[in-house]
Specification:
By secondary structure, the chain is an alpha/beta fold. It has 17 helices and 13 strands.
Length: 413
C-alpha cells in the first residue's frame, strides 16, 4: 500500500512532472477553485472517463503554483485494489507525510459507506479541503445527502464542450480568420464527441476507446454496482442509443425488449445515475401531467452514441439536436420538450421564463420548425423563440435564428 500511495503522489518528489500532462484547462476549473473559499467537501461527479481525475490534477497543480507544499497534497484513486478502506489508506499516507492538508479521493464510490468516514474527517477539520469524485450520481443520493447535509458542494463534469474541444485543437474561435477551422471542427465534434481520451493526436483509432468506455460503464457502473442483469442493461441501453430524440414510454420499451414495465423503470434510473443518458419530460406547468406523457432520451456524448449504435449517418440534424441538449445540461438548465399540433425540441425553464428551441442545422429550415415555435408562442406568449441553424443568422417574426457554433460558444448574436 505504501508503494502505491507514493506512486500516485508523484509530485511529492517531482512536482514538475505535472507539467508533462497535455491537458486542456476545463471550463469548470475557475469555478471549482473559487469554491475553495468554502471548507465544504467538494464532490466531483460525472460519467466515467470524462476528465474528473485530470480536473483534480489541475486543481493540485494550481495549489502548488499558489505556494502549497507538494507534500501537503494527497491523492488516492480507489480504483487501485491496494486501497480498500479509507481510514487505513489515509492513516498510511499520514505516516509518510504527516503534513497533509488537502485530500483528493478519486472513484470514492468503490468504498461502501465512504461518506461516513469522510464526514468524520470533515467534522474534525483534519484537512483544509476534501475533494471526492465518482462516476455515479449516488454520490449525491438521498443517503449521502443525509450524512453530508450542509457539508458538501457538487461539481458536475461532462465530456468536453465544443469550446474545450476547440481549445484542445488550438483554434481561437474569436479570430475571424479561423472561422473555417471552427466550421471544420464543429463537424468533427458532431461526429466524434468530446471524451478527452479520443482527442489526442496519438490515438490510432477512436472508436475502440469509446466502445471500451461504453462497456465499462455498463459492466462496472451498472451491472456490478447495482447487481443488474447484463443482457437487460445492454438491450435497454442499445434501444435508447438507437432512438435518441424520439418520444417513448416505459410501456413501449417494455414491449419492444420484452421485459416488465417495472424492470424498464428501474434500469432507466440506473442508466441515468451513471450519466449515460439524459431524459427530458414533456413540458407542462402541472407535474402530474408531465409524468403521464412520453419522455425523450439523449446520449451524454455523440461520439459514444455513434460508436456503439446505428449511426445517424448523414442525419446531422439529430447529431446537432443531441449536442444542443448535452450543452443545455452542461449549463445546468431545466429542460423539457413540447408537443401540440407541431413540436418544439426543447423548452428551457428558468423560473417563470420559458425559452423554446428548435434545432434544424440547415440554412433552409422546414416550415414545421417555425410553426412549432409560433404555436408554442401562442400558448405561452412571454416565451423567447430560438431556432438553431447551420449559418443562418437573423431575427424574423420574433424568432432568433442562431448558428449552432455561435450558440455552443455562447457568442453574442
Amino acid at each position: 500500500m505504501k508503494t502505491s500511495i507514493i506512486k500516485w503522489n508523484f509530485w511529492w518528489s517531482n512536482p514538475d512532472k505535472l507539467n508533462d500532462f497535455e491537458w486542456v484547462e476545463r471550463d469548470i476549473l475557475k469555478h471549482t477553485i473559487s469554491l475553495m473559499e468554502s471548507p465544504h467537501i467538494k464532490d466531483i461527479i460525472g460519467v466515467r472517463r470524462s476528465g474528473k481525475t485530470f480536473l483534480m490534477y489541475q486543481i493540485i497543480s494550481h495549489l502548488i503554483q499558489a505556494g502549497v507544499k507538494p507534500g501537503e497534497i494527497l491523492y488516492l484513486n480507489f480504483d487501485d485494489p491496494e486501497f480498500k478502506e479509507i481510514k487505513k489508506t489515509i492513516s498510511m499516507a499520514l505516516e509518510i507525510k504527516p503534513e497533509i492538508k488537502y485530500a483528493f479521493l478519486d472513484e470514492i464510490q468503490n468504498v461502501p459507506e465512504w461518506e461516513k468516514d469522510i464526514r468524520v474527517y470533515y467534522d474534525r477539520k483534519e484537512f483544509k479541503q476534501i475533494f471526492v469524485s465518482g462516476s455515479s450520481a449516488s454520490l449525491i443520493s438521498r443517503d449521502v445527502g443525509k450524512t453530508l447535509t450542509g457539508r458538501h458542494i457538487t461539481i458536475p463534469v461532462a465530456p468536453f464542450s465544443f469550446k474545450e474541444f476547440l481549445s484542445k485543437h488550438n483554434v481561437d474561435y474569436g479570430d475571424p480568420f479561423q472561422k473555417e477551422k471552427v466550421a471544420h471542427y464543429l463537424e468533427l465534434f458532431l461526429q466524434e464527441g468530446g471524451f478527452p481520451e479520443t482527442l489526442s493526436g496519438k490515438v490510432v483509432t477512436k472508436e475502440p476507446i469509446l466502445v471500451n468506455t461504453y462497456n465499462d460503464i455498463l459492466l462496472r457502473d451498472v451491472v456490478s454496482r447495482f447487481n443488474a442483469d447484463s443482457e437487460t442493461a445492454k438491450k435497454l441501453a442499445h434501444y435508447l442509443m438507437t432512438n435518441i430524440g424520439n418520444p417513448f414510454s416505459e410501456n413501449s420499451i417494455a414491449k419492444t425488449i420484452n421485459v416488465h414495465n417495472e424492470t424498464v423503470k428501474k434500469y432507466l434510473s440506473m442508466l441515468s445515475e451513471v450519466f449515460l443518458f439524459y431524459y427530458i419530460l414533456q413540458f407542462s406547468w402541472k407535474v402530474r401531467v408531465q409524468l403521464k406523457k412520453d419522455m425523450k432520451c439523449y446520449s451524454i456524448d455523440n461520439g459514444l452514441r455513434n460508436a456503439v449504435s446505428f449511426k445517424f449517418s448523414t442525419d446531422s440534424g439529430k447529431l446537432a439536436e443531441n449536442t444542443v441538449l448535452a450543452e443545455l445540461k452542461r449549463r445546468g438548465k431545466e429542460v423539457y420538450f413540447w408537443k401540440g399540433k407541431k413540436e418544439v425540441d426543447f423548452i428551457v425553464r428558468e423560473g417563470d421564463k420559458l425559452t423554446a428551441i428548435n434545432v434544424a442545422y440547415t440554412d433552409t429550415p422546414h416550415k414545421r420548425e417555425t410553426e412549432g415555435l409560433m404555436e408554442f408562442k401562442e400558448k405561452y406568449s412571454n416565451s423567447e423563440l430560438n431556432l438553431i441553424t447551420k449559418e443562418l443568422e437573423q431575427t424574423e417574426e420574433g424568432i432568433n435564428y442562431i448558428p449552432l457554433w455561435k450558440w455552443l460558444l455562447d457568442v453574442k448574436h
